[in-house]
Each structure stands twice: as C-alpha cells, then as structure tokens.
Amino acid sequence: MLYMFNNNLSCLIPEEIRNLYSLVKLGLSQNQLNGFILASLGSLSNLETLFLRDNRLLGSQPIGMLRRAITGSSQEPYNGKLMRANNGTLFPAMDLWSETTVLISLKTDCYTLNLSHNNLSGEIPASLEKLRGLYTIDIAYNELHCPVPNCPTFLNSSIQELRGNKGLCGNASGLPPCTPFSKKGHKNNKTLYIVILPLLSTTDLLISSIALLFAFKKRKKDA
C-alpha cells in the first residue's frame, strides 16, 4: 500500500505509477494534485482502494477497472465495498454520468455509491438501476434536474441523500412529485413548442385576416 495523505503534493499524477503492479491501496487525498486522472490507474489490476478526495483532478475515473472500490474518504473503507467520489474538485471535465465511462462498468457488488458534493448535472442514467447489489446511493448537493428512478435504491433513499439538488422529483421520501414536463425533460418541452408555435401562428394569421376584412368593409362602406 502507498498512502500520501495531506502532503501538499502539487503536481500531476506520474505515469510511472502504472508500474506498481502489486499495489493494493493507493491514498492521494488532501493534496493539490492537478491535471487528469490517469487511465493508467486502471492497469493496476490488484488495486482495490483508491483515495482521491480533495484534489484538483479532472478527467474520467477508471472505476470499472478497479476490483472493489474507489473512495473519497481519508479513512479506511469498510470491507472494500464503499465507493465515494464526494467532496473533491473533480469537475467540470469529469463526466461521472457517462454510461460509457464509469457507471456502466461499476461492479454489481458495489453496496454504497456516494457521489455527493460534486457538480453532476443532467439526468440520472438508467445504468444505475442495473446495479443489483447497490443498496444505498447519495447524490446530495449536485445540479440534478430530473426524476429519480423508480427502483428500491432510490425509493428507499432518505432526503439527506437527495437534498441539495434543485430539480429532483419523484416518489422518494421528501421529494416533490414530478409534473408531466419533468418526466420527459426538455424533449417534452421541444415537442410542446413544435405543436403550440404553429397553432399560435395560425391563430395570429386568422385574427389578422379578420381584422383586415373588417377594415376593408368599413373603408368600402365609408366610400
């Protein structure tokens, strides 16, 4: 294991770290590391736990390549089953919602997923519902504007695990119910605009035609 917590490191993560084939635990939290999170970390086939909390990192995390967990905590994770990416300055370049990068490749034996205190935005990906082993999830304090999935993991979440998002709605405890517009998001709005705008244009044209007709008749009568 290699722990280097709170050492004021202010550099890029060195590429040479990929040569530490036997590394099981790597702790780099509470430093000033910058640049991109190396995809080469995923080549550490024995790596079980990775600590990256409180840095200035960007890029895609090779989460799916780790055997057990990625944690943002400076403490030992319990039983290697805790995944956290919270409280770090990992955005805006990181796309944790991308189904082709992170969430689609998470292990199904990941019990707890904590993505709180980041800048996640958009919709919650459907791939999260496929994580059969996921017991709890924390997405508090992000920028999510969408309904929460109707699956036990989300429906059993507490408001503490969902709060701090301005646009979340759904059947989970403490959330407002979704409106017809929120269920379909912007696509529904676009459809509404496509339907309404031609109707408004047609109505305006009809009113203008009637007004011109009356004006013409009045002018003809006065003449």
Automatic annotation (TrEMBL):
Keywords: Leucine-rich repeat, Membrane, Repeat, Transmembrane, Transmembrane helix. The keyword Transmembrane helix applies. It comes from the Eukaryota. The chain crosses the membrane at residues 192-216. InterPro entries: Leu-rich_rpt, LRR_dom_sf, Plant_receptor-like_S/T_kinase. It is found in: Membrane. GO terms for cellular component: membrane. This is Uncharacterized protein.
